[in-house]
Design brief:
The structure is a single chain. About 5% of the residues have low confidence. Strand 11, helix 11 and strand 12 form a beta-alpha-beta unit. The chain is built from 15 helices and 13 strands. It is flat and about 85 Å long. The chain is α/β, with parallel strands linked by helices and about 450 residues long.
Length: about 450
């Protein structure tokens, strides 16, 4: 990290301003070489300075230049941010000029990566930066903020301290056996502490599914045979004419997608082609996609027609969605009844044109996923897949240690599993990491962040 990097940190397009960010040991010197105004080398940290950017004798833009001196900056290095007018051409001209003067174009996420490598943030905070950017609801933003503030790191560090205390006690006992009784330390100290840790792990992991939904949303497939009202249901939920609706069966031939916020969680809705036997090549492809969506979806809304008798396709769909989380919707209740409802154990009788019925469907989704409980969400809701995986690995190692304690294994064997549990927790916050993992993580960031 001896070089100086540069990137455009705002979305490239017409706007009021755009920001070019520079970080590294030569950041202030390089910008000073193209800037006319106050002497930036003597400028105080955390100041905004008015001036102009010049390429030789040619003025490129009137700017505001922010100066941040290390180590109290986002990256831990000297950082300069040039606030340009928000034109695409002029912003790129400033970027090109800085590259010619010695800056290197930053890789995706490299500013945040430098913040991590310089010890300004840990891995959970780095991941939370992207979570904040990608947050689509108040709850997903709240979840990201726990990591950003360092709450997740503190929780992990507390776990590590407790495990380390056990490890040290064991190692003292191994090195100085005359001071401790091995059986005493195993049964009276290690057993209750390990048991308590496992229970706390289980509570956090139990919330991980809800946390994942907060981050990624609920993948929801609207399934049924043609002309039962799937597209009308999609439009009613989204409150817009997203899908084409006609009385002609097979109008929807491909998936139609939309998003809505329900109870603080994004519902990723997919209206699928009606499932039926067809000789139409294009429609047949759509039917196959519909069946694939059943497998992929977190939630299936299975739609039937109140005014039409059950068919073999209806029975097939009932069977193949049996193992899925599903809501059975009996649509078109405003028409004459021709459907035998006795075959269904649980269903929602409704009309897509009735707002109260749509609200009932929304409330049923909230009940299934316990969305009303999210107001009590705290930092123990970990939604990051990598963090959850490492916590599970740590939990498994602790369980192995606990089993060894119950079976009265030697404490040096127990210590191996405790060290594994401690190490997996270190990987969550980045105390233990490989370069390849760090590179992969930050490669998912946008440029300039």
């Amino acid at each position: 990290m001896e070089d100086t990097i540069v990137a455009i940190s705002t979305a490239l397009g017409k706007s009021a301003i755009s920001i070019v960010r520079i970080s590294g040991p030569e950041a202030i010197a390089i910008v000073s070489d193209v800037y006319k105004g106050i002497n930036l080398n003597k400028a105080n940290t955390n100041t905004i300075n008015y001036g102009h950017i010049y390429d030789g004798e040619e003025m490129l833009d009137e700017v505001l230049v922010s100066v941040f001196r290390s180590p109290k900056t986002y990256t831990g290095e000297d950082v300069v941010e040039i606030n340009c007018h928000g034109g695409i051409f002029v912003t790129n001209k400033v970027l090109e000029l800085l590259i010619r003067k010695g800056c290197r174009p930053a890789e995706p996420g490299e500013f945040t990566k430098r913040a991590f490598l310089n010890g300004r943030i840990d891995l959970t905070q780095a991941e939370s930066v992207m979570d904040v950017i990608e947050a689509k609801t108040t709850n997903s933003l709240k979840l990201a903020s726990f990591g950003l503030k360092g709450d997740v790191r503190k929780m992990v560090e507390d776990f590590r301290k407790e495990i380390l205390s056990m490890i040290l006690k064991i190692e003292v006992n191994i090195d100085y056996p005359e001071y401790e009784d091995e059986e005493l330390i195993t049964s009276e100290y290690l057993k209750p502490v390990t048991e308590n840790l496992i229970k706390r792990y289980e509570k956090i992991l139990a919330k991980s599914e809800t946390s994942t939904l907060l981050r990624e949303g609920i993948s929801t497939a609207i399934i049924g045979r043609p002309n039962v009202g799937k597209s009308s249901l999609l439009n009613a939920l989204l409150q817009e004419d997203k899908a084409i609706v006609t009385e002609i069966a097979g109008t929807t031939r491909d998936v139609v997608e939309g998003k809505m916020n329900i109870g603080g969680v994004v519902l990723n809705l997919v209206d699928t082609a009606g499932v039926r036997q067809t000789e139409d090549v294009v429609e047949r492809i759509g039917v196959e996609k519909s069946k694939q969506m059943i497998v992929k979806a977190d939630l299936v809304i299975l739609v039937f027609d109140y005014s039409s008798p059950l068919t073999e396709i209806d029975l097939e769909l009932l069977q193949i969605t049996k193992i899925k989380t599903r809501i059975i919707v009996i649509n078109k209740q405003d028409l004459e009844k021709k459907l035998d409802l006795n075959i269904f154990e649980d269903y929602l009788l409704m009309s897509t044109f009735n707002e109260e019925d749509i609200d009932k469907l929304k409330n049923q989704i909230k009940e299934i996923y316990h969305l009303s409980e999210l107001s009590d969400m705290d930092y123990t809701y970990i939604g990051n897949a990598r963090q959850i995986a490492k916590l599970k690995q740590s939990s498994e190692a602790l369980s192995d240690a606990y089993q060894s304690i119950l079976e009265k294994y030697p404490i040096d064997i127990i210590n191996i599993d405790l060290r594994r549990a401690w190490g997996f927790l270190g990987e969550i916050i980045g105390e233990v990491h490989s370069d390849s993992i760090v590179d992969e993580l930050f490669a998912n960031f946008c440029l300039g962040k």
